[in-house]
Amino acid sequence: MAAKEKQPVDNFNSTSNLTTNTGFQSTLSIDSKDIVTNEKAYNPFEHRQVEHPNSTIGSTLHLLKACLGSGILAMPSAFKNAGLATGVLGTLIAGLICTHAVQMVVKTSQEVCVVAKKPSMSFAETCGAAFTYGPKKLQRWGGFVKTLIDYSMAATYISVLCVYVVFIGSSIKEVMDVYYPQYDISIRMYCILTLVPLILICQIRNLKYLVPFSAMANFLIVVVFAVTMYYVFVDLPPLSEREMVANVSQWPLFLSTVIFAMEGIGVVMPVENEMAKPQHFLGCPGVLNVSMVIVITLYGVVGFFGYVQFGDAVKGSITLNLPEDQWVAQSAKLLMAVVMYFSFALQFYVPMEMITRVLLKKSKFENILQISIRTIIVTISVACAVAFPNLELVISLVGAIFFSTLGLLIPATINTVYLWDRDMGKFNYVLIKNSIIIIISLIALVSGSYISIIGMIEDLSTSTHDNSTLTY
């Protein structure tokens, strides 16, 4: 086969390394598309050099940790917008689609590594390379796509920070309203009060210094989850008191929330890239399938029984529904606020890594710029939370805009682009399947965003007529 004309492609660099091995850095530099048919097929797994590779079990735990975050506490609220029967079926379907989307990303990454003769690629690198090694007319878009995904990942994690601020403010308000009702401080004021503490913790620049905070957050969330599950299963009301199928107009909120809760697309490639046996990531049982079966099961159980217990009164986080007259329940709410505070810095690390690499490289004023940019981003996150402090709607909006795009639309698109001139399957089933996923992602994007924004506008309109807003 004749060698194709070489085209310059931007150097690919990993943007989302959330694993404990910070020493591993991608060194991808795609500079050739030559494929020699008489050579032995390149095996990227044999060329990976990872200083501290993760075992199969360790990789499963990493993926579970990424997916089983604060989103699981929002599942009862999702079921409220779907009903019990629709919620169970919807969670299963959404889980299968999200799992398949991740499979497409990983499989595309592994295949393009063979063509590019590179040991590993991150999510952004994979997206760019899918175009670079895809149809000839799209190859020149590889660098642009990679950069676009880089910035999209940063924007996604910044949006998650807004959710965390609302989470912290809501949790603290729930407790303070019980023990100090005379102050009557609004949730917006509590969000503002988080500004200085969050700015301070986000000045930590080295990931290794965040490890103690992450470890503490992991321990506390287990405690909170145990306390929450106790109250969920105590004196459950009969199922007949709950809706089996909610109004169709509310389904987009359900879908957006579930996508927000389940998607961990930003950490999938770092986990796969640092496995000792990456060939065990896909397949059956495989790391991905085992992890997602556990995730889907837990999300379904928490969502189902959380809605059965609290009904239409369930809030954006089920911890906010815990009894007000029991100190254990109130303590769990405060602990959840602490978990979100510690986790905020870890989530903040991801967009700052990209911003530092792209904007602050070799700057003589790097220290001042670091402090300034970190302060500005935290301030923006808090300002957005103050403007829209409804946790349920914020989660739904973030899920609709960012996670439906990065978690569903992008994986289906890059898989289609890469396989366009290769193998679309019998009767072009790959194209048909991916088109369906793209349609679902667009429905979630448009409908979820619309309903969430309408709800936020109504909340904002109501708050403007409340004289107590931002006052004691």
UniProtKB/TrEMBL annotation:
Pfam families: Aa_trans (PF01490). The chain crosses the membrane at residues 148-167, 187-204, 211-233, 253-271, 283-307, 327-350, 371-388, 394-419, 431-457. It comes from the Eukaryota. It is found in: Membrane. It is a multi-pass membrane protein. Residues 54-454 form the Amino acid transporter transmembrane domain. The keyword Transport does not apply. Keywords: Membrane, Transmembrane, Transmembrane helix. Signal peptide: none annotated. PANTHER family: AMINO ACID TRANSPORTER, GH04538P. This is Proton-coupled amino acid transporter-like protein CG1139. It comes from Vanessa tameamea (Kamehameha butterfly).
